[in-house]
Design brief:
By secondary structure, the protein is mainly alpha-helical. Helix content is 54%, strand content 6%.
């Protein structure tokens, strides 16, 4: 079995799997627009996945493997991209970013006190959010601790 001699249903299955995996990779849209680093990471991950998946399809079909072996082998190879592409992992919030968030959220009328306020990630850091001005906000300590690392609701992006 080669790529050129696959039947139409098999070719459609390969394409459908590729499309489904690509759509699943786009689920963190708001995270990507809130981080240049995360956007670069996700694009790099997607390209690596597609290259490994396509390469797996080519090699396994050239080896005349059965359809399911080709399909699952290529998917397994594609998902190994997660092991190859390193995620940015610095939790440090720069001083200029902190100052910008304080100025935006408190303005001139209130003074920042670390006992009363926390820097909150709209998209939690543990779920792919970054330390940019766009993704951080100043909230009360109680509100931040109550929220935990839950995914944001739509209104969180516009508060």
């Amino acid at each position: 079995m080669s790529l050129l001699s696959t039947s139409l249903p098999e070719a459609c299955a390969f394409i459908a799997i590729g499309v489904l995996v690509t759509v699943a990779g786009i689920k963190h849209y708001h995270t990507a627009i809130r981080s240049k680093e995360m956007l670069f990471y996700k694009v790099k991950l997607a390209f690596t996945f597609c290259g490994l998946y396509g390469g797996g399809l080519f090699v396994l079909t050239a080896m005349r493997q059965p359809f399911l072996t080709v399909l699952f082998g290529a998917l397994l190879l594609g998902f190994s991209a997660k092991l190859l592409v390193k995620r940015p992992d610095s939790r440090y919030i720069r001083k200029d970013v902190k100052r910008a968030v304080i100025a935006r959220d408190l303005g001139d009328e209130e003074k920042y006190d670390s006992e009363d306020y926390h820097f909150d990630h709209i998209v939690p850091y543990s779920k792919g959010g970054d330390n940019s001005v766009k993704n951080l906000r100043l909230v009360s300590k109680k509100r931040n601790l109550r929220r935990g690392n839950r995914n944001p609701r739509l209104r969180d992006f516009y508060e």
